[in-house]
Write a structure and sequence with these properties.
It is a single chain. The chain has 65 residues and is mainly α. The chain has one domain. It is built from 2 helices and 2 strands. A two-stranded antiparallel ribbon has the order 1-2. The longest helix has 17 residues. It is rod-shaped. The mean pLDDT is 80.
């Protein structure tokens, strides 16, 4: 999703505080970031780090390492 500010003819100084389009965009971006980083076992981690953690757990269950 592209920020609605790009090419906006109604853009002014401090317009983000009143712009409904920007508020929707910001909520969307916050959700994307929340999904990207999750809280796992006392720490925040990215999806790639979560995949590594799952792999380690699976290896332990299978008796490896």
């Amino acid at each position: 999703m592209i920020a609605p500010c790009k090419g906006c003819e109604e853009r002014t100084i401090y317009c983000h505080t009143t712009c409904e389009k920007y508020k929707e965009f910001r909520e969307f971006r916050e959700q994307v970031l929340a999904d990207k980083y999750k809280y796992i076992e006392g720490k925040y981690t990215s999806r790639s780090a979560m995949a590594k953690e799952r792999k380690k757990l699976n290896e332990r269950k299978m008796g490896r390492k």
